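Progress note, project year one: complex with aspartic acid.
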Amino acid sequence: MKKVVKFGGSSLANAEQFRKVAEIIHADKGRRYVVPSAPGKRFSDDTKVTDMLYDCYQSAGDEKALEQKMEAIAQRYQEIIEGLCLELSLEDEFSKMKEAFAAQAGSDYAASRGEYLNGIIMAAYLEYEFIDAAEVIRFDEDGEFDAETTNAILSRRLETVERAVVPGFYGAYEDGRIKTFSRGGSDITGSIVARAVHADLYENWTDVSGFLVTDPHIVEDPETIETITYRELRELSYMGATVLHADAIFPLRKEGIPINIKNTNRPQDAGTLIVENTCRQPKYTITGIAGKKGFCAINIEKDMMNSEIGFGRRVLQVFEENGISFEHTPSGIDTFTVIVHQTEFMEKEQSVISGLHRAVEPDTIDLESDLALIAVVGRGMRQMRGTAARIFAALSHAHINVKMIDQGSSELNIIIGVKNDDFERAVQAIYDIFVLTHL
Ligand code: ADP
Ligand code: ASP
Ligand code: MG
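Model obtained:
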């Protein structure tokens, strides 16, 4: 068995966590390729090293502040090195960093140092080879991840390497400039490495015992999902289940490599298996619930809009011209709604409204802000009748007004819009009806 193992920030927050990680790695000879994140929070109001680095880079122009902030970061690593009794000095690395910060090397470079330095420590501790992600993970000139070039470089580089540490979260352009993925991107690096080495399994180690039916910050102690498909996972991650980055499945999909989400603090728990497909029936009608706040609905009304060919296209073109991507477009006979991220929309609000007037001459345009979207996802929903009815019943029982409902054509998900203020109660109500009362 060849396994790629990725450890998240809280799994590597201090020396004690590093020890647990090493124990996990040594317990299975198949765990040959290790992808570490930067040190995360050691306690609930601690700061992640990645956030310290972004903040430090902001102070690059102020020598004294830079010095102080850099020292605090160095201290985090020093604590780990000493706690592990390693003969390792990062002094030269910090001198290079200081110079690069002063020379405005960019915030991506700054943030990437979190995983880079943690990778050096991890490799020394495990006595594995260290491979800088900048050498093997490639972005194209538009800043997009270049999957095929990366796969060619990385698989060649790892062909003869029995065991290695490849830091997560970043890569580089062809000219060597560093570029990061979006936040939480070490999950993507793990997938990329798993694909390159044709791994049998990608283990993603974190601080919860798997993918939970919903966010543990909203529902107390939610159940763990045993098995989930890539498609279900993508819907849930995209809608805010941050446990795995939504883009982490793309490299794996090409090879059908399963992911196992595991808990570094409870390695004995089975965790969640994420697979391309499965004939295992889900335990409940739904697999999971996720959601996000901060959306805005632009409701466009015009009599007889249905007979106007190209109406929808012209509406969406206005959003395109303003550089705004849309999330959903529920429509009626004389109404067409576009749902967008509120912060993105607010900057361009007036330009969009006047653009819509010019493009489709609507009777009215009505804006509704502060909406939350909730995705109820499950491969089991296709066979079950009345899922939407049950969701409505649960929400109505909880006195929550449903603002929007949209069912994906795959019948894999139902999206519900509610007011931001009702968000947590709505998630709880849906969880209760499907999981607690097991309907
Ligand atoms: P890591 O640093 O290991 O990558 P993250 O913080 O990115 O970990 O993701 C794990 C966290 O995701 C959990 O601690 C939990 O608070 C949060 N989370 C949100 N939704 C879910 C969910 N559906 N299942 C599990 N965890 C979730
Ligand atoms: N350290 C990065 C972040 O905090 C990447 C990651 O943790 O996956 O976003
Ligand atoms: Mg993460």
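Residues 8-11, 37, 40, 184, 206-208, 211-212, 214-217, 241-243 surround adenosine-5'-diphosphate (ligand 1) (CB under 6 Å).
The longest strand covers residues 288-301.
No further modelling is planned for this target in the current period.
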